[in-house]
Amino acid sequence: MARKAAIIGGGVIGGGWAARFLLNGWDVAVFDPDPEAARKINEVLANARAALPALSDIPMMAEGVLTMADTLTDAVEGAEYIQESVSERLELKHRVFAQIQQSCPDTLIGSSTSGFKPSELQQNAANPAMIFVAHPFNPVYLLPLAEVVPSAASDLEAIERAKKILREIGMFPLHVRKEIDAHIADRFLEAVWREALWLVKDGVATTEEIDEAIRMGFGLRWGQMGLFETYRVAGGEAGMKHFMAQFGPCLQSPWTKLTDVPEFTEELVDLIAGQSDAQSGQYSIRELERIRDSNLVGFLRALKDRDWGAGRVLREHDERRRVAFTPPKDTPMVMAHMQVLPSWIDYNGHMTESRYLYASSETTDAFLRFIGADMDYVAGGFSYYTAESHIMHRGEAKLGDHLTGTLQVLSADEKRLHVFVSIQKDGQDVATIEQMLLHVDMKAGHATAAPQVIRDRLLPIANAHADLPRPKAVGRATGQRK
Ligand SMILES: NC(=O)C1=CN([C@@H]2O[C@H](COP(=O)(O)OP(=O)(O)OC[C@H]3O[C@@H](n4cnc5c(N)ncnc54)[C@H](O)[C@@H]3O)[C@@H](O)[C@H]2O)C=CC1
Ligand SMILES: C[N+](C)(C)CC(=O)CC(=O)[O-]
């Protein structure tokens, strides 16, 4: 039976939490009195479903079941984990905790609060020990960080249990050892935000110019090394001490207004909102979310290939899912999700033939990574090479179509891997590709037996797939009548 999480408050952040739990196989009950909540959550979920599968080569878990509960008590009943994500008002959060703890005083309650300390959240609670901060970052379903902040009244065993659950849904729980308003990351965001408000208010830069200053330069650096590692490198061979000697005195020069907050007048709000409309008003919020998600997926995949930063968290999550994954006995494995891009289209206005082989390679490559023949394996001098391919075109793919690559192992032994790939649109084949691959010693330049570690992953899948019906196209020769 699936595990259950309850999400109280289904706005931007609650919707993201719901998507992360659901796509990691948990059942989720959401309570939010807003009559629009179900629509909003389903829209966030649709974006998450489009983004998350592209992050990983491990087949997705069966999605959990989403329930919109009529009452808070219904939502939390039977939940192993509760995430409070209501609006940032302390008295509202207190009311919600009191209601939750009337029926489940001993269940873990993480709060998404951006600014309140856990000791503030715990005030007057029936069981303060179970309430802690689990502060996520938007979009919650893609970004791994959750700042986990206990107070002196917290139950540390419960905090460790919460961190374990967060890891199980692919997150990186950062244990904040000392409670502080706005935790760690939001202290930075607030400092940058304050400087940005001054720059707009003083007419130095528009919202667009500020965003360019971030995304063309230091934003890219921060996403992979953070602040201190980046500045260590900036100190040159002499490192951090030299960096501090050179730039430390700047703290005395008028580089910062951080202690001084601009007055939040209607005029300033209108100025910023107007500039933001001019900058990005041509996109709806959902379109911007999709652009953001697809960029993040690209970044995260690049970091995963390099086993670095947030990419390492993804790798570890993949490894956990690989171990938990049992090859399906009744269906081929869904290995790749792709979208038909403009460069894939030919003069006939549909996907050009070479891209069918490309889509097939994406699918088999994902499968090879899944059984352990990944880039590290190739760097060790062994790989699988394709010896033979037979493509059958069965439908048309057009610009923007979403394609899925599934793979069935027809047979496998120590050297050979015979597979049948389907490239599908809306569940229908647009092409099938039958391939024979050989395990190769790249230095010696000939086929050789795959090591036991690869066979241990491959052969159980081959055995499971032996019971599947053999596709009619298998073994078909070109020109042969059906
Ligand atoms: N938006 C952001 O970028 C981030 C926000 N957070 C935190 O997450 C929490 C939620 O923020 P958002 O999702 O942005 O706000 P939001 O305004 O999008 O959503 C809040 C939701 O809470 C619901 N709500 C209000 N009273 C409720 C009640 N009694 N029971 C159940 N639901 C109730 C509202 O109907 C609304 O849908 C806040 O504590 C915020 O500080 C954390 C990280 C990032
Ligand atoms: C602006 N904010 C304080 C709500 C931001 C956050 O809490 C985290 C985020 O996702 O940027």
TrEMBL record:
InterPro entries: 3-OHacyl-CoA_DH_NAD-bd (IPR006176), 3HC_DH_C (IPR006108), 6-PGluconate_DH-like_C_sf (IPR008927), 6PGD_dom2 (IPR013328), HotDog_dom_sf (IPR029069), L-carnitine_dehydrogenase (IPR026578), NAD(P)-bd_dom_sf (IPR036291). It is an enzyme of class 1 (oxidoreductase). It catalyses: carnitine + NAD(+) = 3-dehydrocarnitine + NADH + H(+). Pfam families: 3HCDH (PF00725), 3HCDH_N (PF02737), 4HBT_2 (PF13279). This is L-carnitine dehydrogenase. Residues 4-179 form the 3-hydroxyacyl-CoA dehydrogenase NAD binding domain. Pathway: Amine and polyamine metabolism; carnitine metabolism. The keyword Magnesium does not apply. Its main location: cytoplasm. GO terms for biological process: carnitine metabolic process; fatty acid metabolic process. Catalyzes the NAD(+)-dependent oxidation of L-carnitine to 3-dehydrocarnitine. GO terms for molecular function: carnitine 3-dehydrogenase activity; NAD+ binding. GO terms for cellular component: cytoplasm. It comes from Pseudorhodobacter turbinis. Belongs to the 3-hydroxyacyl-CoA dehydrogenase family. L-carnitine dehydrogenase subfamily.
